[in-house]
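[step 3/7] inverse_fold.run input=structure_tokens len=279
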């Protein structure tokens, strides 16, 4: 919550109240937003900890509201979860992300992974597998470049079902990341039952890394756990060189954060990739 508050204050123009009339208005404009093409994807890179090279990107949803300006996902996704609109919105998200990734591939950039966030309702939607399969076929996206980010708490809602869905996704060749790791209550022994590829250490641990011995030991424990399970360990919310150095020394594999860049629209992201890959 600490992280989110800071984020909203700094980078979004709109602070929505939870007033019920406003919620109602928001809900009806959310219904129109899809057909009016008001949703945007911003992209933030993931870097290899040792080489600093970009390994992929995460797609992050924004709503460019005609009157309210740029709205943060945390301001409308909870409502979209409640009213079910997150399912079609989410479908638009992975469709757009896959098409963008294919376009960058065709432009000759190296194979970079594309991470997409899923919310609980989407994850439990019976059409998820079919929708993803269709998207992969329609866009020509290489399944192994698509990484679905699922939060730790979502995975614990119904473990047998989660395992089943994840196994089906793996069979399609898609990669799975466990997001916000360390904030949920997963039994660590259960973790090995999930077919995972990546663990993302929650930004709240990274934030106080330099000052908090407790956060340092938790971070080290998560890295070791991930490594022992053969997973790629990614730190999110890395904002300073001190944090990056610490993570590198402790063998974290990849990182994301304002230290390198903020999420940005596709055109800007493409320019930064051109700089990096000198094309
Ligand atoms: P998340 O998946 O944990 O994404 C990380 C959030 O941290 C993003 O906020 C990102 O902009 C922000 N961030 C990145 N680097 C830093 C940093 O160095 N410092 C700080 N303080 N923050 C950093 P954002 O874009 O506002 O997204 C918030 C959350 O909304 C995401 O958290 C994710 O749970 C959800 N979300 C975003 N896009 C989607 C989507 O397409 N579908 C679904 N279902 N959820 C989404
Ligand atoms: Ca994420
Ligand atoms: Ca996260
Ligand atoms: Ca988070």
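[step 3/7] decode complete -> sequence:
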């Amino acid at each position: 919550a600490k992280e989110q508050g800071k984020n909203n204050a700094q980078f979004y123009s709109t602070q929505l109240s939870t007033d019920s009339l406003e919620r109602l208005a928001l809900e009806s404009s959310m219904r129109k937003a899809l057909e009016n093409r008001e949703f945007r994807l911003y992209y933030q890179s993931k870097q290899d900890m040792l080489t600093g090279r970009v390994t992929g990107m995460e797609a992050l949803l924004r709503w460019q509201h005609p009157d309210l300006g740029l709205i943060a996902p945390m301001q409308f996704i909870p409502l979209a979860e409640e009213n079910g609109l997150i399912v079609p919105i989410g479908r638009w998200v992975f469709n757009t992300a896959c098409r963008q990734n294919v376009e960058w591939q065709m432009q000759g950039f190296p194979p970079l992974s594309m991470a997409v966030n899923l919310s609980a309702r989407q994850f439990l939607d019976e059409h998820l597998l079919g929708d993803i399969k269709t998207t992969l076929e329609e866009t020509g996206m290489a399944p192994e470049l698509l990484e679905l980010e699922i939060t730790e708490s979502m995975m614990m809602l119904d473990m047998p079902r989660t395992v089943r869905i994840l196994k089906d996704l793996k069979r399609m060749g898609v990669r799975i990341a466990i997001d916000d790791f360390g904030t949920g209550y997963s039994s660590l022994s259960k973790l090995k039952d999930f077919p995972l590829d990546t663990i993302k250490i929650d930004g709240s641990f990274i934030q106080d890394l330099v000052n908090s011995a407790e956060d340092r030991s938790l971070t080290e424990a998560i890295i070791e756990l991930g490594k022992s399970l053969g997973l790629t360990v990614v730190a999110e919310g890395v904002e300073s060189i001190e944090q990056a150095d610490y993570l590198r020394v402790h063998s974290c594999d990849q990182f994301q954060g304002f230290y390198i860049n903020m999420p940005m629209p596709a055109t800007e992201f493409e320019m930064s990739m051109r700089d990096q890959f000198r094309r």
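[step 4/7] annotate
The two ends are 39 Å apart (CA to CA).
The CA atoms of residues 34 and 92 lie 8 Å apart.
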